[in-house]
Design a protein that fits this description.
heterotrimer; A mainly alpha (about 260); B alpha/beta (about 575); C mainly alpha (about 270); A: about 260 residues; two-stranded antiparallel sheet; about 5% strand; B: about 575 residues; alpha/beta; six-stranded mixed beta sheet; 24 helices; 21 strands
Chain lengths: ~260, ~575, ~270
């Protein structure tokens, strides 16, 4: 065997979107176990939002879009096993509680042409959120008649601003830049806005299956829209407050950087 | 063929990405069945050597390499990890992350199953590996439910099922208690006896590998400073000390006191005692009991600062665990106490009860006569400081200063007072240069010091250290204890949980031995070490110097000899005495 | 922080049942509870709940686990009964009149008997939905789940990530507890914080070191799995062989029959 001088860079055999499976698995496990940590009450069902949801939301910020999504999926499934009583809709809940927050945040921090996907997706989700369950399946499944145009306008709070953010330079240019900025204020603002837009749009698919299951009345549907209009920003603020110290710590840690992550 | 080296490194230099050179011009050769021990201080390059041999470098940690490496006929640099893994297995320090399957059976099958080994062969290898590490019968157990020593043996077995020709063990016992260390050591010994496997093991515990090693390599800053047989290497106490490697106590005594004359290359306690007796009889060594001052008396009349009164703590669960059973213990102001006992004896439970992290099931804990239940978390933190084993459980801020400020803010220290207290705490632990550094970037030893600083800044009257020598090398092992000593000198009360009897012998005035949740022995440290039978029940072995002193008692060696330095005071070459 | 429901090693017919049969039961539960609901659907739900109770009993799962389930869901039940009591659009018989506030379709000042009843039916629906997964979790070992997922064609990487993540949960619980303790030692009293202060302040000193520690451990985990051949191109060997026994078919037939009966009863 002859003597040589060679150089090789880190290259693991197993990875997802440039991040090692080990990181995805361990972060996923963390997202899962925090299903037992209630952080914030939700008014429309007598329960709590677990820490899983903000952690899944920030997974794409820490692990890049694909790694974050995979970690959120693992976290959702683990959450289902660790706290099965909190996942009555089983695999549907895995998506609602874990995968969707990660997906929407991942979409919000992409500064490339993904807005072409994000904007139509948000519009479709907005329209579906308006129609389900009071129009589809509607009266056939025992649901009442919601007052219009009030109900449409209330639903619009949850998808129109997010869609506008995603479609304008704020979403296509500034938020992706701010979340990676060295300026702390900009970064807080960027993460807050990204998470806010993501959580607003997430709220629609997150709530509707349970409204169907709980057979919400029209009055409750309207009231819940109003009540959550402050709740979503509060959850986004909590998420941003938790995220920044983690991101700053990771930046200083010397751990290998992950492509697509914000640190 | 048998004499052909199975493992060979020639002129190997390796630098990690970022040009941090970790190995320099390293040469090593080992034949089949040979046991190579690699020693060195933290950061000497031991783990890097393991990574180079097992292919972890460059496939997981990238970098630049020069030189020739051959492991069982292949160069791990050029082969994918799964190919190298079939020739060279690797076991790391932390068993927790090496076990990730739901049952022991699945854990052992994981490696060979990934390589498509036939099912029957996998099951055969699993049976053999489990028998070798003495875990047979536990196949269906969840590895997470095993004890520390069992976990590491399970991890070892899971590497053995890959049927490697070379086994690399990177400090396999460093995170275990004495019982776990003994269990894993025994398994490694059996592995060596099979004779087939070439083993490369890094460690700080020189005494544990002394009788196993065929070849010893000592590294310092990536360079070889000593290489040869154990007898050759361990006779060079000066070089070892300079490299931050502990010389086995008996070999040190042989080299420094007996001039390595008429003692086997690897001596036993009785060999050394016999030779000392011969030298004393020949008048070449003198015994001066008066040279060693009597141990400090325990007539501490200070007020009782902490007291466990009939303290019982039960961990609830399907099978409740009684961690402490009616413990009565009084700790007086200004004492320096060591608490020893094997894992599960109740040491951690006792100190966690002292700081209110655990509530007594029965009985009470009193601080200056008042029940600890009356104090809030903040009030306790201002009075009793507990420094846990792993500093990484607490460090989270962007700088060392912020880390200390965190606790001060929690107890409501005024902003104008804050900076002075932060700087004082950093100065006390010698980290004043690193105030703005991200704590995660400090070495493990410095992170522990920072943890101490963040506790000392709160101004406690009692300082409790949990295992101050964990994961420290020979050079750094007493750094935390020294901080505790200085705290004690300023009038503080110190409680130190440890498995390290040398540490207890050196620092503790009083020793408490716990066993199955009860106080087994309690008294002056030297006095406690005179009860080897009781100590054995708790897997505590007195320091080697104390054992030697007991052997030499008929010569007049006093029973309170506990350290090698004590022994050197009492036993002196005749020429020195005359001088 | 410890999970209330986790696998308990016992030898019962439910534990021995093929995991795919149990997964089918879990999936059918989801389908059943998603059927549109009317107040008259209570018998349908009770029949399926009866099946769950049977599995619960045969699987020798402790009753206190069921009590835990009820405790977790209690808030939701109260919410449903009160909210439906006030807002049920077909409510006609007043139980309690607090005033009159007619909004669109319901009089929000009146709790109606029909509304309360519908709230009870919905609570049973939620209980039915929530009781299936704990049975699966408490009676199925992870190794069997892993094999069953493989049989369902779930990619090996995904199965591995799930299984290893599940195995790390106990380590994470330990680490979480240790970090909380370490911060308490510096007078950080998370237990005395109110919900808002806790949400904004408490988790940073816990989550940040936990993530740093995890990512540090991740390198060792990566080493451990890759030095055991994970990611090799060689087709892996199947170690766990899941045998299908006649009892599995009988249980499957029974579960399908109960499901069919419920469906007929619902839509007849």
């Amino acid at each position: 065997m002859e003597e040589k001088t060679t150089e090789k860079v880190r290259k693991t055999a197993t990875g997802i979107g440039g991040v090692s499976i080990a990181w995805v698995t361990l972060f996923g496990a963390l997202c899962g176990v925090t299903g037992l940590v209630p952080i914030f009450p939700y008014v429309g069902g007598g329960g709590y939002v677990p820490l899983t949801t903000p952690l899944c939301a920030i997974a794409p910020l820490l692990l890049g879009p694909w790694g974050g999504l995979a970690a959120a999926a693992v976290g959702g499934v683990i959450g289902m096993f660790v706290a099965p009583a909190a996942y009555p809709l089983q695999i549907v809940d895995v998506f609602l509680n874990a995968v969707l927050p990660a997906l929407f945040v991942a979409l919000m921090i992409q500064g490339n042409l993904l807005w072409k996907v994000t904007v139509p997706l948000f519009v479709v989700l907005g329209i579906l959120g308006w129609l389900f369950p009071f129009y589809i399946p509607g009266a056939a499944a025992g649901f009442g008649r919601v007052p219009e145009p009030l109900y449409f306008l209330l639903t619009a709070i949850y998808w129109v601003p997010s869609t506008l953010i995603a479609a304008t330079p704020l979403g296509t240019r500034f938020i992706p830049r701010w979340v990676r900025s060295a300026n702390r204020a900009q970064r807080y603002g960027g993460v807050f806005l990204a998470v806010l837009a993501a959580l607003f749009i997430w709220w629609l698919p997150w709530t509707r299956p349970y409204w169907y299951l709980f057979n919400y009345s029209a009055e409750l549907g309207v009231a819940t829209h109003i009540a959550y209009s402050w709740w979503v920003p509060a959850l986004a603020a909590i998420t941003a407050v938790i995220t920044i110290p983690i991101v700053e710590a990771l930046e200083r840690s010397g751990l290998p950087k992950i492509e697509g992550a914000i640190w | 063929m048998a004499d052909q080296p199975i493992l060979s490194l020639q002129g190997v230099t390796f630098a990690y990405e970022g040009d941090v050179v970790a190995l320099r011009d390293l040469n090593l050769s080992a034949r089949r069945g040979e046991f190579v021990v690699v020693l060195g201080a933290n950061g000497a390059g031991k783990s890097t050597l393991c990574y180079v041999l097992s292919g972890i470098v460059p496939h997981i940690y990238g970098g630049r390499r020069r030189g020739v490496v051959s492991v069982a006929g292949l160069d791990p640099w050029d082969e994918p990890l799964y190919v190298t893994a079939q020739r060279c297995g690797v076991l790391m320090q932390d068993p927790e992350v090496q076990l990730f399957m739901p049952t022991l059976k699945a854990e052992l099958a994981f490696g060979p199953a990934n390589l498509g080994v036939p099912r029957e062969e996998i099951l055969r290898r699993s049976r053999e590996a489990l028998a070798l590490v003495r875990l047979d019968g536990l196949e269906e157990h969840n590895p997470r439910d095993l004890s520390g020593g069992q976990k590491q043996r399970a991890a070892l077995a899971s590497v053995l099922t890959m049927a490697p020709q070379v086994m690399v063990l990177d400090e396999p016992t460093s995170q275990l208690d004495p019982l776990g260390r003994w269990e894993v050591g025994e398994a490694i010994e059996r592995l060596k006896r099979t004779g087939d496997l070439t083993i490369v093991m890094t460690t700080h515990e020189t005494e544990e590998v002394l009788h196993l090693a065929d070849q010893v390599l000592v590294l310092e800053e990536g360079r070889t400073v000593l290489q040869g047989s154990p007898a050759e290497v361990f006779s060079r106490t000066d070089v070892l000390e300079a490299a931050g490697v502990k010389t086995p106590v008996l070999m040190r005594i042989c080299a420094e006191l007996l001039g390595n004359e008429n003692v086997p290359a690897i001596p036993s306690l009785s060999d050394v005692a016999r030779r000392i007796r011969e030298l004393v009889a020949a008048g070449r060594l003198t015994v001066s009991p008066e040279a060693l001052p009597p141990p400090p008396s325990l007539t501490n009349n200070g007020p009782v600062i902490l007291e466990a009164r009939d303290l019982t703590v039960v961990y609830p669960g399907p099978r409740p665990v009684i961690a402490l059973r009616g413990v009565n213990l009084q700790i007086r102001e200004g004492e320096f106490i060591g608490i020893v006992g094997q894992n599960g004896s109740g040491k951690s439970t006792l100190v966690k009860s002292f700081v209110g992290l655990l509530r007594p099931t029965q009985g009470d804990v009193l601080f200056r006569g008042k029940s600890i239940r009356r104090f809030s978390v903040g009030e306790i933190a201002r009075r009793i400081g507990l420094v846990l084993q792993n500093p990484d459980y607490q460090l989270f801020t962007p700088s060392c200063r912020e880390e200390i400020r965190f606790g001060l803010r929690n107890i409501g220290v005024r902003p104008e007072e804050m900076d002075a207290r932060v700087e004082e705490a950093l100065r006390m632990v010698g980290l004043e240069m690193y105030g703005d550094l991200f704590p995660f970037r400090l070495s493990f030893g410095d992170r522990r010091k920072l943890a101490v600083a963040s506790i000392l800044a709160l101004g406690p009257e009692v300082l409790i250290l949990d295992e101050p020598t964990t994961a420290q090398d020979h050079r750094g092992r007493y750094q935390l204890a020294e901080l505790a000593r200085r705290f004690h000198e300023r009038g503080g009360t110190v409680i130190m949980i440890t498995h390290d009897v040398d540490l207890a012998a050196r620092y503790a005035q009083r020793l408490v031995v716990l066993w199955e949740g009860q106080v087994l022995l309690d008294g002056p440290t030297a006095e406690v070490f005179r009860h080897p039978e009781e100590l054995r029940r708790s897997f505590v072995v007195p320091p080697m110097a104390a054992q030697l002193a007991a052997e030499l008692a008929p010569l007049g060696v006093p029973s309170h000899v506990m350290t090698v330095e004590d022994l050197y005071r009492v036993l002196r070459p005749a020429s020195q005495r005359e001088a | 922080m410890q999970p209330a429901f986790r696998y308990v090693h016992l030898d019962t017919p439910v534990h021995r049942l093929h995991p795919l049969v149990k997964l089918i039961y879990v999936f059918l539960t989801l389908v059943l509870v998603m059927y549109p609901i009317r107040p008259t659907d209570l018998p349908v739900l009770l029949i399926w709940l009866g099946l769950s109770a049977l599995l619960w009993i045969v699987g020798r799962i402790e009753l206190r686990r069921f009590a835990t389930l009820l405790k977790i869901l209690f808030g939701t039940f109260v919410f449903l009964i009160i909210i439906q009591g006030f807002t049920y659009r077909f409510g006609q018989t007043p139980l309690l009149v607090l005033g009159h506030l007619r909004l669109w379709e319901a009089d929000l000042g009146v709790i109606t008997k029909e509304g309360v009843w519908f709230g009870v039916v919905l609570s049973v629906r939620i209980l039915t939905a929530a009781s299936a997964l704990p049975i699966f979790v408490m009676t199925t070992p992870t190794s069997a789940i892993m094999t069953a997922l493989g049989k369902l064609g779930v990619p090996r990487v995904a199965t591995f990530m799930f299984v290893s993540a599940l195995s790390f949960t106990s380590l994470l619980f330990e680490m979480w507890g240790s970090i909380v303790e370490a911060q308490k030692l510096r007078a950080f009293d998370i237990d005395r914080m109110n919900i808002f202060r806790r949400a904004f302040k408490a988790y940073i000193p816990i989550i940040t070191p936990l993530i740093l520690l995890l990512f540090r451990k991740a390198n060792d985990f990566q080493i451990a799995m890759e030095t055991k051949g994970f990611g090799s191109p060689i087709p892996p060997t199947e170690i766990e062989v899941l045998q299908t026994r006649p009892a599995d078919y009988l249980w499957l037939a029974f579960i399908l029959a109960v499901f069919a009966a419920c469906t007929v009863l619902k839509f007849a």
